[in-house]
Design brief:
Elements: E1 4-5, E2 8-12, H1 22-33, H2 35-42, E3 44-47, E4 51-54, H3 59-70, E5 73-77, H4 84-98, E6 103-108, H5 111-126, E7 136-139, E8 143-146, E9 151-156, E10 169-173, H6 180-195, E11 201-206, H7 213-222, E12 229-232, H8 243-252, H9 255-261, H10 276-280, E13 289-291, E14 294-296, E15 306-311, E16 321-327, E17 333-341, H11 349-359, E18 364-367, H12 373-383, E19 391-394, E20 400-402, E21 411-413, H13 419-434, E22 438-439, H14 443-449, E23 452-455, E24 458-461, H15 468-479, H16 483-489, H17 493-509, E25 526-527, E26 533-534
Parallel strand pairs: 5-11, 5-12, 6-9, 6-10, 10-11, 15-18, 17-22
Antiparallel strand pairs: 1-2, 3-4, 7-8, 8-9, 13-14, 14-17, 15-16, 16-17, 19-20, 19-21, 23-24, 25-26
Helix pairs in contact: 1-2, 2-4, 3-4, 4-5, 11-12, 13-15
């Protein structure tokens, strides 16, 4: 076995002479020109039932290969167990064989998963005829190098996975399962690598898993906001799957799991603060400007009133310093800008806040002052002398009250996030969003909404996710509940919501009439769970 690589009889070592027959030359050329023919004739895979078998491609798999072959950017939304990884690695093997000096990266949510995918590619390579193989220079669990100078590496998807390298093909497997912060950093670091060549291919393949970076890329592809060619496969296109199979699968899993993993619907987490139906129908827009974490959706308009709510990172690497700017001139309120950055230093963050707030007509700024937030608020007030920083006063059992200035004890800049304030803020922002009284068009906020869930007695991000932008909205939810908000905006959000709800009740009850208890309307009051007193609307002339 002198021609074997390190004693492996299935692999050819470098510099092994090969004498091609005329038929083999023609076959080699045919395979080089037609990846589908190559896969049909020479790729073998492991079947759970039958062991090593030829790869019999389904029509949708052939369509995927043709699309990848003819385009630079491809994104595939495929159901579970549809042979998506097998199809892609077969193409990668073809590319490495017939395109000398190619660099290929296989990236997955875990390094072990990426190495497993490479292992399946290696198995297919070992079962190629020797005359078709390239000699092996390097062969291990993490990478292979062939005699034609083509290389294939396997790694976990991260911002540093392929930094500094030059790749002809990057394959992202199950990209929806990559944590949101890693996925975002990956694209910010890897895009220069992709765009450096004119023929570099990016292949993204995944089953949906929440509303994340994969969801954004897919949605943008569908709406032609990026260069990716979208490919969607229905579970019924996989042979052997029919209604009987569907019923059995749902019976052994759940309707929700089937909906996500086989119907390929983008579903958020369960028990989210904002209803899943509302999140699913929220459309996000591309910012008109983006720079260093700041996304602008609407430029400032003269005489409009803006509010900025600020959440400061707690010094944990995953946390972001964030703020949201809202147009509160009239309902529905609108998110006009947002900032999110996990690299900015506390020393610099106040300057960013001031610069953006001044641009938006000296927006009212409310800072959450837990942890480092107090330092940020004091810097805005004393060093930068920002003239529209909101303050609160602690009024005992009533809690923090907005807009009292320095009158009395317990006055301070910003608002300290307590259980009660968070409860009020969550309840109000839920009502505002679900009743279309606030428009949110930012992808990162929608993404956080889909993982902002009930945990114990509170609401927070699911494990592995962030909620910094959502907390900015929660702060605004509490702010909109404050009497001082009416003075700021000349809009009483609480009263408007109350009137609308009363109107809906009246419409629902109109066919049946109301029971009159004899109490004059102007004397009837209602006290909500937060102790706020609600008076009925008295319409003159009625």
């Amino acid at each position: 076995m002198t021609d074997a690589y390190l004693g492996n009889p299935n692999l050819k070592k470098v510099n092994t002479p090969v004498e091609f027959t005329k038929e083999q030359i023609l076959e080699y050329q045919k395979c080089a020109n037609d990846p589908i023919y190559f896969m049909r004739e020479y790729i073998q895979i492991v079947s759970l039932d039958d062991g090593l078998v030829p790869f019999k491609m389904y029509p949708f798999q052939e369509h995927i290969v043709r699309t990848i072959h003819d385009n630079r950017f491809t994104i595939c939304k495929l159901p579970r167990q549809s042979g998506k990884s097998t199809t892609t690695i077969s193409y990668l093997l073809h590319y490495a064989l017939f395109n000398p000096n190619s660099n290929i990266a296989i990236l997955a949510n875990k390094s072990s998963t990426a190495r497993d995918i490479l292992g399946r590619l290696q198995l297919a390579y070992e079962n190629l005829p020797k005359w078709m193989q390239q000699g092996v220079i390097n062969w291990n669990k993490g990478n292979i190098e062939l005699e034609n100078k083509s290389t294939i590496v396997a790694a976990a998807t991260s911002s540093s996975a392929i930094r500094g390298g030059s790749f002809n093909i990057i394959f992202l497997d199950e990209f929806a399962f990559v944590p949101a912060n890693i996925a975002e950093m990956f694209f910010s670091s890897v895009y220069p690598t992709i765009s450096s060549g004119q023929k570099t291919k990016m292949i993204i393949v995944s089953t949906p898993y929440g509303m994340n970076q994969f969801y954004k890329l897919w949605t943008d592809a569908e709406n032609k906001r990026n260069d990716y060619i979208p490919i969607e496969v229905h579970w019924s296109e996989v042979p052997g799957r029919d209604e009987k199979w569907k019923e059995a699968t749902i019976r052994n899993t759940s309707p929700e799991q089937f909906q996500q993993e086989f119907e390929c619907e983008f579903l958020g987490s369960v028990n989210t603060l904002i209803s899943p139906a509302k999140i699913k129908n929220m459309a996000f827009k591309t910012p008109i400007k983006s720079n260093a974490g700041l996304d602008v959706f609407e430029d400032p308009i003269k005489d409009k009133t803006y509010v900025m709510t600020v959440d400061v990172a707690r010094g944990v690497s995953k946390d972001y310093s964030a703020f949201v700017v809202l147009d509160v001139s009239q309902m529905p309120y609108r998110v006009v800008a947002k900032y999110r950055n996990n690299d900015i230093k506390p020393l610099l963050f106040p300057h960013t806040i001031e610069q953006v707030a001044k641009g938006y007509n000296h927006a009212h700024v409310l800072v959450e002052t837990n942890d480092l937030g107090q330092q940020i608020a004091e810097s805005l007030q004393f060093e930068l002398e920002y003239d529209n920083l909101l303050m609160t006063t602690n009024r005992g059992r009533a809690g923090q009250i907005l807009g009292a200035g320095f009158s009395g004890r317990g006055s301070g800049f910003g608002v300290k996030m307590t259980k009660q304030i968070k409860k009020i803020g969550c309840a109000n922002i839920k009502t505002l969003i679900e009743s279309d009284k606030i428009f949110v068009n930012d992808f990162n906020i929608v993404e956080e909404m889909s993982t902002f869930v009930k945990r114990g007695q509170s609401w927070q991000a699911e494990e592995g996710n962030t909620d910094d932008l959502m907390m900015c909205l929660v702060i605004f939810g509490w702010l909109s509940n404050q009497p001082f908000f009416k003075e700021m905006t000349d809009t009483n959000a609480r009263q408007m919501l109350y009137e609308e709800q009363q109107s809906l009740i009246e419409q629902d009850m109109a066919p049946f009439g109301f029971i009159d208890d004899g109490t004059p309307d102007h004397e009837k009051v209602e006290v909500d769970e937060y102790g706020d007193v609600w008076h009925p609307v008295v319409r003159k002339g009625l």
